[in-house]
Inverse folding.
């Protein structure tokens, strides 16, 4: 992230239940509520920088050039003690080094605790809109983002002005159309955008009233069909497009001709099945396809025939075979999102039914295991999207139930999940959240309810 002249302090709250409250009985059989334990006010002393408390976040700004290695916090707490590690904190007296996250522990009278993680960040390192927020002419359902070889973002979406697919790109100053708006010419669903190695953009979508699979590419002036349009046997929504390192096109979709099970097809003069059509146990929700650094295809979905457990399959010859059983670790899993870390290790983010619908990430480096604490989001999550940064750090964007369904992003750093910027940074609730990196910078795209349900792209810088 580029340096800027001032800093922001972001405080995120995670409640850790440490034991159970001791009941206080007076008179007999009357149990009091658990004793309070919270920071209710937080600010820096010198220079004076008051904090603004909004839900579970506290934001304070210190002037440019302020050293962060010995900042003194002035706070009010409802508990009986506040600690950092084993050191008791005295409001307005105790200094701490905020170069790295600092955990404040508030202790209640019965010994239970609540932890506040205090992070000092660069004020410039915030989520900022790329061009105008809500840049599409009308509503933009199911936005799909990809980057051309120069790193310019493109977004495909269902255009509320015509019910068809449109694509726009950011030219460095504004979002502009790529080809004709609504170029599919009929109602469409589930657009998925990708670039081949030469920099040509392709979009897959469920076409027309029957919702069969179609793919088009932009030839520099128009979006032209790739093979036959409506090539699937039946309905194909949702559909996801992936392009391997050789430029071969693959699609994965929920195959309505096969009971909603998952089917993969690839293009070589014609669209042909890869493996058996409808190879999942039951109907497959949230299908997606990714290629590992070595070129192996991975299919991911939530298998409703297996209790909606998350499923990852790899292509072995002509057959799709399971990559272990991630569902044994997480229970039901929704919005599974796959990405590859160092040495091609697969990581999977999901909404974890075993953790009350919170976000979890697991990985398979011989067997599936948790990455940090399972259920690390503060509350319920939806629309989880996983991406691996250039340093190999996994990051997850999601619709945050504790923040009015706004967008939050967290990354796994120094052994724990920490926020990237403030929680709930979008203007309002967000749908179809997706995260990706370009030139080391994280971007998110979403359908922006606060801006007329149009598309918004933001980046962290």
């Amino acid at each position: 992230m580029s340096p800027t002249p001032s800093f922001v302090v972001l405080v995120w709250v995670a409640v850790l239940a440490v034991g159970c409250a001791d009941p206080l009985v007076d008179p007999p059989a009357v149990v009091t509520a658990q004793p309070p334990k919270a920071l209710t006010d937080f600010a820096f002393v010198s220079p004076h920088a008051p904090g603004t408390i909004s839900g579970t976040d506290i934001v304070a700004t210190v002037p440019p050039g302020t050293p962060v290695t010995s900042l003194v916090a002035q706070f009010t707490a409802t508990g009986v003690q506040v600690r950092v590690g084993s050191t008791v904190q005295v409001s307005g007296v105790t200094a701490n080094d905020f170069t790295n996250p600092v955990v404040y522990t508030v202790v209640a009278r019965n010994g239970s605790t609540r932890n506040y993680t205090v992070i000092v960040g660069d004020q410039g390192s915030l989520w900022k809109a790329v061009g105008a927020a809500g840049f599409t002419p009308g509503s933009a359902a199911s936005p799909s983002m990809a980057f051309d070889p120069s790193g310019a973002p493109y977004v495909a979406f269902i255009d509320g002005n015509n019910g068809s697919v449109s694509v726009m790109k950011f030219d460095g100053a504004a979002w502009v159309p790529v080809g004709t708006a609504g170029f599919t010419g009929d109602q469409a669903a589930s657009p998925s955008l990708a670039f081949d190695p030469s920099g040509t953009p392709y979009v897959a979508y469920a076409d027309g009233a029957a919702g069969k699979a179609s793919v088009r590419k932009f030839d520099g002036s128009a979006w032209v069909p790739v093979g036959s349009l409506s090539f699937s046997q039946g309905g194909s929504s949702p559909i996801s497009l992936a392009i391997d390192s050789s430029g071969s096109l693959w699609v994965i979709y929920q195959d309505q001709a096969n009971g909603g099970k998952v089917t993969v097809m690839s293009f070589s003069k014609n669209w042909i099945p890869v493996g058996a059509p409808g190879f999942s146990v039951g109907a497959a929700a949230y299908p997606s396809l990714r290629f590992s650094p070595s070129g192996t295809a991975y299919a991911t979905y939530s298998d409703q025939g297996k209790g909606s457990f998350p499923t990852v399959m790899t292509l072995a010859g002509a057959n799709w075979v399971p990559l272990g059983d991630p569902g044994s670790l997480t229970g039901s899993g929704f919005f599974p999102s796959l990405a590859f870390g160092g040495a091609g290790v697969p990581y999977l983010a999901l909404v974890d039914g075993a953790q009350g619908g919170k976000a979890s990430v697991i990985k398979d480096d011989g067997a599936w295991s948790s990455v940090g604490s399972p259920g690390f989001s503060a509350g319920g999550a939806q629309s989880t999207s996983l991406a691996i940064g250039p340093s190999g750090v996994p990051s997850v964007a999601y619709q945050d139930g504790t923040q009015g369904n706004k967008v939050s992003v967290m990354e796994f750093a120094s052994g724990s999940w920490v926020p990237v910027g403030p929680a709930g940074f979008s203007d309002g609730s967000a749908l179809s959240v997706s995260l990706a990196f370009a030139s080391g910078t994280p971007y998110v795209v979403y359908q922006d309810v606060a801006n007329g349900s149009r598309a918004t792209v933001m980046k962290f810088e």
